[in-house]
What does this fold into?
Amino acid sequence: MKSRADVVIVGGGVNGCGLAYNLAKRDMDVVVFERDYLTSGATGACGAGIRQQWSTRDNTLLAIDSVKIFEKLSKELGEDIDLRHGGYLIAIHDDKEMQQAEKNVEMQRSLGLKVDILNPQEINDVVPILDVKGMNAIGATFCPTDGHANPFKTTFAYANAAKRCGATIYTHTEVVGIKTQKKQVTEVVTNKGAVKTNIVINAAGVWSKDIAKMVGIKVPNVPIRKEIMVTERLEPMFEAMVISFKDGIYFSQQKEGQIIGGIPIPEQKVGYKTMPTVSFMQHMARVLTRYAPVLKHVNMLRHWTGFYDVTPDARPILGETKDVKGFIHCHGFSGHGFMLSPMVCKLLSDFIVDDKKSEVLESLSLDRFKDKRIEHEMSVVG
Amino acid sequence: MKNKAIVCRCEDITLEDVEKAIDEGYTDLEELRKKLRIGMGPCQGRVCIQIIMKILEKKTGKKVSRRDLPTSRPPIVPVSLGTLASDEK
Ligand SMILES: Cc1cc2nc3c(=O)[nH]c(=O)nc-3n(C[C@H](O)[C@H](O)[C@H](O)COP(=O)(O)OP(=O)(O)OC[C@H]3O[C@@H](n4cnc5c(N)ncnc54)[C@H](O)[C@@H]3O)c2cc1C
Ligand code: FES
It folds into this structure.
């Protein structure tokens, strides 16, 4: 094992590998530790969606800038990440949701996003298989440049490119401790050896809480168990991701033809239990066939669980705090850490390499919870 | 012709695809699965996972532990959404 590094990253998900690439590209000597295999965390369970339609300005900005990076990523990394702009169609069910949608759209448009409010007829123009009455929709918002990409391919492509730039990735290697001196990170200890470093990035997903505890920092994140399913492959029928905040459902058809989607169930709890439930399969099937009755003859192939790493305002925790120098937060993605990863990795790398601060990083610092400067993200699904 | 042997029928993956991915460094069964979609078809890997496990063991010289086999993911056999939806209780 290497004895020292400029930066050590804990976690081999899309954010850990994305950071490794961004930093190695800028000539930093980078080491990544992943205790299992790459994509074994939330990245491996991800719904693949990329959405720019958010209620908070920060998330919208991060997502818009991330899409710009996603668009160039296959070429830059030399591997196809299967990006597709099918758009996101967000159902609106009542006047209250319409008011929030109008507010969101106004803010999103002010940031340059192309997004429209659709009437029921226009919903069917975008996704013909939807039963607008069954959905109880009075309208929808639609952004054509939203879409999806393959999270596994993205992560592997980042990891391969990072290695080509000189990064070292150790899988099956668990971080068990972090040493500090005078409130400065000095060493990362694993079950297979230790590496001296002044900077460690906590990109351990839902386990980031445990990593933060190693340097005495308490973070407010909670793990929430989510289930998601996939059907058999079908002929292409629609390109948009369909979501509803009220019903909690999201579903889309992927490049290979399968439909993937998820929905929360009442049994969904805080905790790390992973067994998939029968009630999820039933509830998902009921709501999905209510939205798109033609799907009732389609087979569900499998479903699996994963965790959202949820913060009190449903927004990520990024950057350094004064408590421990060299300890960088990159977690708390609350169910949308794939779509934000390109910009998050860039902002954090610019901060580490150039000491560059940004408005977004400031507002997503862990300190916001101390000062009670929080604005809740409303547009969370699943 | 010899490398055209199909190892995953559902997803149409050949022996050559698998060996190439292992050479590129995808040496975990789960990484192979996520890279190539092996085991994600309607049979859920019943046909292919054991074969791929053997190929991986032969190429890396390391035993794949039972623990590393993909977990079985319900409903195990394909079930129509209509059937699942109608099961009101
Ligand atoms: C069902 C589901 C659907 C989702 N859908 C979407 C979506 O449509 N769009 C979207 O943008 N996001 C979605 N998300 C969220 C997204 O998947 C995550 O936010 C994102 O993948 C987080 O990536 P990450 O790299 O930060 O963390 P993770 O992928 O969780 O990676 C963290 C890694 O750290 C490793 N680790 C933990 N502890 C240690 C240790 N001590 N030592 C070494 N390694 C350690 C873990 O093994 C893990 O591999 C979804 C999540 C779930 C569960
Ligand atoms: S043969 Fe590989 S999934 Fe069926």
